[in-house]
Amino acid sequence: MRPVPWQTGEICGPESAKSLTKSDVLKRDLGKAKKPLLIVGSQAIDEKHGKGDMVDYAIAISKAGNIPVVATGGAIKAFIEKGFEGAKSMGAMELASRLQDPDWKGPHGKGPHDMILIYGIPYYMQWTLLSAVMNFGTHLTAIALGRYYQPHANWSFPNMKEKQYHEILDEILALVGGGK
Amino acid sequence: MKKKAYFKADEAKTGLGVFKGLEVRIGQIVDDEWDEPMGPTPMPNPTKLRAWDHKLLTKYQPSYMPYCQVCCLCTFGKCDLTGDKRGACGIDMKGQQARIVLAAANLGCSAHLAHSRHLIDYLIDEYGPRTALIQGPGTEIHAPVTRLITGMRPRTLEDASIILDYCESQLTHTLSATNTGQEGSWMDFESKVFHVGMVDQLSMEIADLAQVSTLGFPQADPEAPLVESGIGMMDTNKAIILTIGHNIIPAASITDYITEKRVGEEVEVGGMCCTAWDITRRDPKAKVVGPISWQLRFIRSGKADVIVVDEQCVRTDVVSEAKKVKAPVISTSDKAVMGLPDRSDDDVDSIVEELLSGKIDGAYIPDHHKVGEVAVKVALAIKPRRRKMKFFPTKKQIQKMALECTKCSECIRACPNDQNVMEAVLAAQTGNFELLHAVYKNCIGCARCESACPNDYALHSWMAAIGEAECKDERYMVRTGRGAIQDTEIRNVGQPIVFGEIPGVIAHVGCANYPGGGQDVHDMAEEFAKRRYIIVTSGCAAVSAGHVRDENGQTIYERRSGEFDAGCVVNVGSCVANSHIAGAAIKIAAIFAKRNLRGNYVEIADYIHNRVGAVGISWGAMSQKAASIAAGFWRLGVPVIVGPHGSKYRRMLLGNPDDERAWTVYDARTGDRVVTAPGPEHLFYAAETVAEANVMTAKLVLRPNDTGKGRSIKLSHYIDIHEKSYGFFPEDVWKYIRRDTDIPITLKDKILAQMKENKWKERRIPDPTLLKEQIIGGGK
Hints:
By secondary structure, chain A is α/β, with parallel strands linked by helices. Chain A is built from six helices and nine strands. The longest helix of chain A has 14 residues, at 123-136. In chain B, the strands form six sheets. Chain B has an eight-stranded mixed β-sheet, with helices on both faces. In chain B, helix 9 links the parallel strand 10 and strand 11 (329-331). Chains A and B meet through helix 3, helix 4 and helix 5 of A and strand 3, helix 13 and helix 26 of B.
């Protein structure tokens, strides 16, 4: 079944994200990506994953894949409190703008990035950020790692059941070399 | 100054006889008593200020986030505009997004402007065209926005009418630019967005000036009365008339009738949205029920015996909702007739009889003189039988109905704030209503959850029923709108604002589409008030700011003075009173810097942009009106922050802190190009969280003109809020240090280390301007 946006009115244009129902489908894109960037929004703090939360998951992904993290909406505080120093802070709207520039070096100066992995920003705000990326940041492959379908990404979970969602998140962590 | 005059009268008695349907046009009037020289741009057309707009739009480039990727505005389409595709008319994605932004700003401006036109026409009919416009004591520079834009000093209602003629002509032009085959450049669409925002600000000033002058409102009064607010304040022992919208005139006829007939002990009036502020400005015995988002919960509570709607932000299903609680509706505006039968020509008693009998659900009564009498008579007559009725389900009934929930999640998916309504319903199955109560606290009252529910549960009523006990405690004292800021107040604070010693002016304005409840507005306002910023409020944000009590039971308006001064909280009034916030910034340039205002828009905007640390925040921005209000501030160079839902306006105006060239200004003293820090860094910004908004607010008040002392005060707050909100010392402080005097003493070691690490070099503090012509000697 074709995935539909989680917030039912947030329908998209002619193009929409491919459905991410198995971690394997990301193998090729993750393998190809040379400089990915992990974007983590404020809601990651309150969302559980395994024994921790989605901030812990970001730290695990970052460490496993050597992927720099940018935290939005003040989520940076949670990273700092967990003793993780690899995250930088930016606004989601600042990111939406800067990601359109194919020469932007990113908040860590390690870019230009060719892929973003993103979750934790309020659904509708992430929707608009990804719309900017889809239309004007076409050098980027966008992978939405939130539970709900984000049509403007290249890959997105299709409003997945919670248990299955977290299982696939762990598989994606394994894909980048983590979770062992 | 030449201007045309026009007035009309249904009947005029003169020495020559009685004239019916009299209309008089006087060709030209010359304002030869004003010795201020006319500036370069009186009554600018849509391209006159284009060069200024392009300066701002180059510094703060639009970042588009297409909300819709097709265009469906003409029969060529729908056209797919994704990627680099163009539509059949030739427009590309950026152009289309800018076009929609302009359409939204036009819509917003049209609402204020039509409101203003209605007011002026009505007031001319009532009081005569020569009625004086008075902003209040201490406002010698009255109508600063009008002076700046038009070069006119509006002194009478007929002057106001002439200014609205100008506004209407400009709106027609900017609206026409959105038609297929007109404007094609995103930059020029955006310039017109600024233009219509400026026109909006002008029409708002005229509207408020006219009503303040004629309707007995507080006139630039820092001690405007505290009035009762909250659902719990409404006295159900009396008949209750609820007024919703923005236009005072019909509501005023109700309070006037109550006063005239001395029935205040039997009936009371409460308002929602901006009508609430304006009726309490006219009659402090009236009450502010709540912000726009409370409409549905209050209507469904059944407390209102009659509902009178005027215009703007009225729920369009008000008639069907009122019918559920057997409350008649009176619509009064030609913009929002709501499908009701026109009873303009009928006598009052027959309208009352039909409404009481239930023969009609409501009536359209555009004759405002009748509205008061009809509303009061119906309310008094219908109240006894309505008080016996119960409208909310009981907890037992909710629990029983909840058992049928199919767990489809549609209610959650429909909720703009992704509130877990379904979980709350499932908890209610077991008699646990805590989650429903939690949803109620953060609910913005849209009822989309109900529309989506396959079981047709009245979910919003369930939440409101659970929250009903708490409603009784929703009792607050809020300061009603004072109107303009006095010249004397500006004289006292102009210098500390421009030098940065009062760290900023923060205006909380706009709608109630909050991401997490209205308390956020209060908390943000209090955070900065206690730091001695000047806090200004208006509209629904002003209501929400006042709906929190401290441990002593006091609201922010009781705790803090209504003066325009450090640490005070100044409610200017309804949406149209937003113009006084712009007016205060404009008056700083006139009073403190002695700049001419008359038709001198660009110089003053440049002054404000580089010197006045003002920031607008519309945490719950929802409407097109909010968009046009923001646009008016953008053209003045004042940054605006919105809440996360504001990202749906589909474009931000963002600076690039890494692009040094974007932050150069002329030093007006020497003509040199001088690099400054990114300040203000952005012009339009949606923040994801309150924490982010607070950090950004503290940053956006920075201006190139800050003195060393001012800069160090502003940086102290920025650093403190950043550390508190984000947990670390901001990494960009060094960029804002020009000289040692800018460094906050208590943080010197950390900042010096950061400066060293970034190879900081001393910079001069310029007399900043973006305009070559402002360089002494004209920049030649």
